[in-house]
Amino acid sequence: MNIIGLSNIYLTLQGREILKNISLEIPKGNVSVILGPSGAGKSSILKIILGLWKPQSGTVKIGSIDITKLSELEMLPIRKKMGIVFQGNALFDSLTVEENVGYFLSEQNKISQLEMEDRIETALSFVNLSGTNDLFPDQLSGGMKKRVAIARAMVFNPEIILFDEPTTGLDPINAKHILDLIARLREQGTTAVVVTHILNDAVSIGDRLTLINGGTLVESGTVNEMLNSKNEFVKAFFYEVYQDAELLKNC
Amino acid sequence: MEAFKLSLSKLQDYTFLVFDLFKGFISNLKYLQDSFKEMYWIGAKAFRLIFLGGLFVGIILAIETGHQLDLFGAKTLVGRTVALGMVRELGPVITGLLLAARTGAKNASEIGAMQLSEQIDALRAFGTSPIQKLVFPRTLAALVMFLPLTLIADMVGIIGGMVVTKLSLGVDTSFFWHSAINSLRLKDIVVGFTKPIFFGFFISTISCYYGFSTTGGTTGLGRNTINAVVVSSMVVLIIDFIFTKVIWELF
Fold first, then answer.
1. Inter-chain CB proximity B129 and A72 less than 8 Å
2. Interface predicted TM-score (ipTM)
3. How high is the pLDDT of residue B27?
4. Per the structure, how many domains does chain B have?
5. How far is it, in rounded angstroms, from Cα B24 to Cα B31?
6. B122 interaction partners in chain A (CB closer than 8 Å)
7. pTM given for the model
8. What is the Cα–Cα distance from B236 to A132, expressed in whole angstroms?
9. Do B118 and A47 touch (CB under 8 A)?
10. Domain limits, chain A
């Protein structure tokens, strides 16, 4: 069953065509990875799914609701189903870790202080950051900031979490930690959409991969289907994986 | 022609921002706490600047007019000139221009940095209206704080003028006060204290608009911060001209 469906999406920003005729379906409970070179339009897809950007044409369905015609106010209940981890984390500089993680909960104002603290603690312990509640973002390392961003995205138990380049700029150990967190979220039944240009990350966590280039969808399928693709661009992009016999064996 | 279209487009976007600010007025009230913080930063922290600005303008006004009036044996009228000049024109305009620079730069750079680091997108993603969360507290703070700051500039300007008149021209302070107080009409006070409310509203909304429209990294942030200060300052002068013209025509 698909939880997100994009159909014939065209997006133009400041006269530049960003996405051209993108159709994509994201199954529930899976980790779907959107791959592609830098500037291919991957992050734009996340912003369209979240309703931050409106495409010029096409439909975006979250569940059974087409969000392209919804106002900001009508988008609120839809956005409650989704969390996002931005590429640069987008933590609020003036708030502590605890306030950042609990921001959405406090904005909603519908749960008690005790429950809020409990949820924040659970989220922080999930990302292995217990005890950092009173630190500010500029006191954290890159990997810690990313984990705070993940805790903030998951604290209200959304059905879908969107990850924009979650491992970019991290060292291999922190990157592995983030990928493990995404895998653990999948085990909990959360649907994850991950945008990345790092092939090994995509292959290691993705149930389905979608390759984008120049704003158009090149190919979509499981890891094996992509590895066996006859498309020249897919072959070229996956060349690195072809070279890694060990990884191929695991697939 | 393109530049004209761009200006119209910016004006339209600014109008939408102001419209959204008024549209969500009731729900804005939940950010009242943020307004108090802004009042501290925009108001209390600007005290020293406004104090010195008002003081030196009052002193200079007293010296310049005092020496001219002395030529005609009318130096006792310095109090009248300084009081009228400060309360009707120089107090509000100097306060407006100094705050256009200080508050305008603060708002545009803070919101611009948030825009560049995707914090504005994060607010929207977590169901918060950036207009309500960021523009309303800043505008309310400006509306509340610009008035007392103008009053301070007027007062220290007149007192500074009085001291300098006594020291350099030998005019007795009681003459100065008598001349100053008798010259002021209710109309002058109303005009002098209405201007800051308009200045506060336009400086705040214009600088927030430039913050939101920031693109192009740190260069773009610098450019938009300059534009926010320049446009806010120009608007202060234009509003001052309109007020002066209207008041002279009507009364």
1. yes
2. 0.83
3. 77
4. 1
5. 11
6. 84, 86, 90, 92
7. 0.85
8. 46
9. no
10. 1-81+159-221, 91-157
